[in-house]
Amino acid sequence: MRYKDERGFTLLELIIAVSLMSLLVVGLHQITVFSLSSWRRAEQEVDIQQNVALAVNHLSRELRSAREVRITDGRYDIYFRLTGGKRIRYYLNNQQLLRDVNGNGHNIVAYGIKRVHFKELVENSMIYIEIQGITGYGLATAVHLRSPEMEMDF
Fold first, then answer.
1. Most buried residue, 24, 28, 131, 142, by CB count within 10 Å?
2. How many domains does the chain have?
3. 96 by DSSP, 3-state: which?
């Protein structure tokens, strides 16, 4: 028995529907991939900004109590001695700001650091610190030394 009014989809209609659905799925996939990569980039940038801020804060806080200071290696390393006699060194190695105590340690203070720069402002007993992250974000500050001696014997 055949019904006179049979309704169904022709092969052409099915091919068109599947093609449109495929285009929709591919478009949604591209939007999802782009959104996720943007999210990861933004997450990395925020992470680097926090690391740069942490590095500047940590270094300037410790440097304030320094008694003797020496900047070396093209203004990229800083050595100082604290009141108790500890010798501290901050330096950049493989995009990491490292802290060395009495020649031991090499503890990571911050990662994702592209550049550090130190400058002595002897007339004001100040040290200028500039730290830049790999994303281009940077911070700078000047630290006033409480009891400075700008030359050290290490």
1. 131
2. 1
3. strand
